[in-house]
Specification:
Elements lengths: L13 H9 L5 H21 L2 H17 L10 H21 L35 H12 L3 H12 L4 H8 L3 H31 L1
């Protein structure tokens, strides 16, 4: 059966892969999964917090992407389009899981005071940008899972996956201004949740 092995690297660049997908090449979807599957799984896993559910989200996302390829207009990168589909699939699954009646599409209006963390402490770590110790990384990941889904998705795409503001906004199908609001709220919430841990570490180092 070795002669039936499919070369999943036959499309050397994204335009060639997109052309093959639009042409209905039966191997193109498998190539798309090979090229982008790990990125989408990383996002799904961080949003869902469960490996099995993340796998199901990614599977649903790629099935949806392959079946709706004709709707891809090429105004964004293929990866950005896939991030949007994967993120939507994950948020929809969370909505069903939690029976959440609060809209995940736009940030809720809050009083200015609600945007400020109650405890800041000494904050010298920029989430997602500075190398973290293994222990702090675990604390960080747990804190990210406590964020509301819409804020979690914004933080993951922008600060962990490293998408640009424009790309993250396109992936979430929101404006850049809305993305910045969500990201600001997510960072403040994480700073508050991690302030106690960082304060304890500073005290231990001072002893």
């Amino acid at each position: 059966m070795a002669g039936l092995t499919i070369d999943l690297n036959i499309y050397a660049d994204e335009p060639a892969l997109i052309d093959a997908l639009l042409a209905g090449d039966k191997h193109a979807c498998a190539c798309m999964v090979k090229h982008h599957g790990s990125q989408m799984y990383a996002v799904a896993l961080r949003i869902m917090g469960d490996a099995d559910e993340a796998e199901e989200v990614v599977q649903d996302a790629f099935i949806s992407a392959c079946s709706k390829m004709a709707s891809f207009e090429g105004r964004s990168k293929l990866s950005t389009w896939l991030y949007r589909i994967t993120t939507n699939a994950a948020l929809m699954r969370l909505r069903k899981r939690r029976n959440d009646t609060v809209s995940l599409d736009e940030p809720q209006v809050m009083d200015e005071g609600d945007l400020l963390p109650r405890q800041l402490g000494d904050w010298n770590v920029d989430p997602g940008r500075q190398a973290l110790s293994q222990e702090l990384l675990q604390v960080m990941e747990a804190a990210v899972e406590t964020l509301p889904p819409s804020l979690r998705a914004a933080f993951i795409l922008r600060d962990i996956q490293g998408l640009s503001t424009q790309e993250a906004a396109e992936a979430l199908d929101i404006t850049e201004s809305a993305l910045k609001v969500r990201l600001h709220r997510a960072r403040l919430a994480l700073r508050e949740r991690l302030a106690g841990y960082l304060a304890e570490q500073s005290q231990e180092m001072a002893l």
